[in-house]
Amino acid sequence: MSDFFHQFFNWNDLRDSFPLIWEGFRINIQIFVIAEILVLIWGLVLALLRGLPGRAAAPFRWLAIAYIDLFRGIPAIVLIFIVGFGTPKTDIPLVSSFSILQLGILALTMIYGAYVAEVYRAGIESVHWSQDAASRSLGLTNWKTMRFVILPQAIRRVIPPLLNDFIGLQKDSALVGVLGLREGFRAAQIYSGQHFNATPYVGLALCFIVITIPLTRVTDVLLKRDQNRMRGVTR
Amino acid sequence: MRKLLATLTVLAALTAGACSSDSKTTATASSSAPAGNTTAFKPTKAGVLTVGTELPAPPFYLGDDYNSLTGGFEYDMAQAIAKGLGLSKAEIIEMPFAGVVAGQECPCDVDFSQVTITDDRAKVVDFTTPYFDADQGVLVKKGKSVKTLADAQALQWGAQVNTTGLDFIDNTIKPAKQAQVYNTTVDAFNALDAGQIDAVLLDTPIVLGEAKDATQFEVVAQFKTGEQYGGIVKKGSANLAAINDAITKLKNDGTLSQLLTKYFGADPKNIPVIAVK
Questions:
Q1: A171 and chain B: CB distance < 8 Å anywhere?
Q2: A190–B181: do the CB atoms touch at under 8 Å?
């Protein structure tokens, strides 16, 4: 049992490794905060393209569907390798001159954008069709209906599943280390390799948990509030 | 590669993270008689030199089957040593590396498995005279020049996680930009090819092997860490002196240098060394 504590909860190793891990974890924070903002925008664009009405917009719908199907199906680590090691050797404008950090953020945005697009779509489709019909009959254009009637209701409903995807995104920020970045996981690995002790990994796990657990609780509170509102419970 | 990592592991474990350049090769056997004298050699199996190793280990041994190897640096060296000892040939048999450094008895005369000579290991086994300098080689894209420590400090380095190379960059070169770290050597070479890093620091034989295969790369310099490979014999073996004589002869007559060029594209001795404080 003492071996167990020595291996995973060694106070000295935790204390000595923590500055390195924290320095690395700040890169994780940078990755997932920027990626989350980009994912919110990119996912919404995809969801709106997918929901465009009319025959003329069909190619956009197909492209959006193809993108979402494709990028939800690729394992994150595979896409990180493709984007991170592949694109710098190409002459794709802008992207080929990205730093490793930017490439990692791009790969995560591409994947999570596809997930989040589906979350948005679920929200948009959950708004009753009568809302759309009513606002169109009041003279709002299709775009204005979406912007002022559908989306405000849809986004409120999907906040809990959005946060759920964000927790996944935060954890996947550790995958970007494969491109050479010394983020939290890599820092823990280096310390662990030098001292033959797994405590740094536990320290890093704590860093993630300190961020994800409050986020989970916030998600729960929002979910509860939404349910109460739906059932007409007054606060 | 695995052996080099294991080497590092044992090193790090025993020296508690001390810089690997501290563990110099004082354990090198020094009992060799002057070259030219034929010292008595008693083979385990009559008429042949039995050599233990663990496959696969290209380019030290070419092939995966102990009975049908087609060449390799250590393989050719073993054959030359056998000749030097007046034996018909060298026979290669399996001897797992973990067992070797744990002091397990090898049913062979000598073990050549890219084992770094360390003081701690020399307590368990006897090492032959070193036959290979495994320093840290600097791999760059052709055209990049790295001549001084100041040059090296200005580079964006890449290394493999938990290797001597990464330790050396972090603790000795101390570059302005933090080194990037990869899971495998292949990832590091990929990043070098993609221009994400300027240079990779790894064991010289590994980068020489890569530069031989990938012509866009070259090894422009090396840092001395004092790591050398030695053959392993039983502690107190009476055959050590004879084997050392044979190795020394191969060094002096240029055979080893030829083999290095044949299998690694260059003799590491010809790669410029960057001095560090």
A1: no
A2: yes
Domain presence at residue A235: no
| Residue A131: burial class (beta carbons within 10 Å; 0-12, 13-18, 19+) | middle
DSSP string, A146-170: IIIIIHHHHHHHHHHHHHHHHHHHH
Q: Which of A147, A131, A159, A149 lies closest to A224 in space, CA to CA? A: A159
Q: At what angle do helices A11-50 and A151-172 cross, to 10 degrees?
A: 140
Q: Which of A12, A89, A90 is the best residue to mutate to test the B interface, defined by the most B CB atoms within 10 Å of its own CB?
A: A89
Residues 6+ apart with CB under 8 A from A212: A167, A170, A171
CATH of the domain at A67: 1.10.3720.10
Residues of chain A contacting B196 with CB distance shorter than 8 Å: 88, 100, 179-180
Smallest CA–CA distance, residue A32 to chain B, in Å, is 20
Phi-psi region of A196 (alpha: psi -120 to 50; beta: other; left: phi over 0): left
Question: Is the domain defined by B136-223 classed in CATH 3.40.190.10?
Answer: yes
Residues of A within 8 A of B195 (CB-CB) are: 88-89
A201 in reach of chain B (CB within 8 A): no
pLDDT of residue A112: 97
Question: B106-159: per-residue pLDDT in tens?
Answer: 899 999 988 888 888 888 889 999 999 889 999 999 999 999 999 999 999 999
CA atoms within 13 A on the CB side of A131: 16
| Domain around A62 | 2-230
pLDDT in tens, B187-232: 999 999 989 999 999 988 889 988 988 899 999 999 998 889 999 9
Q: Does A90 lie at the interface with B, CB-CB under 8 angstroms?
A: no
Start-to-end C-alpha separation, chain B: 28
Alpha-carbon gap: B209 to the closest alpha carbon of chain A (Å): 22
Does the N-terminal peptide bond of residue B59 adopt cis geometry, omega within 30 degrees of 0? yes
Q: How many CB pairs under 8 A join A and B?
A: 51
- Reported confidence tier of residue A235, pLDDT bands at 50, 70, 90: low
Judging contacts by C-beta atoms under 8 Å, the chain B residues touching residue A186 are: 161, 181
Nearest to B190 among A85, A177, A182 (CB): A85
Q: Which residues of A touch B12 (CB under 8 A)?
A: 193-194, 196
Kindly report each contact of residues A92-96 with a partner whose C-beta sits within 8 Å and lies 24 or more positions away, as own/partner: none
Q: What residue spans define the domains of chain B?
A: 2-6+39-133+227-270, 136-223
Instruction: State how far the Cα of A153 lies from the Cα of B55, in Å rounded to an integer.
Output: 65
Six-digit token string for B201: 């620091």
Number of domains within chain A? 1
- Topology annotation, domain B2-6+39-133+227-270: D-Maltodextrin-Binding Protein; domain 2 (3.40.190)
Contact A190 B13 (CB under 8 A): no
Judged by CB atoms closer than 8 Å, whether chains meet at B162 and A193 is answered as: yes
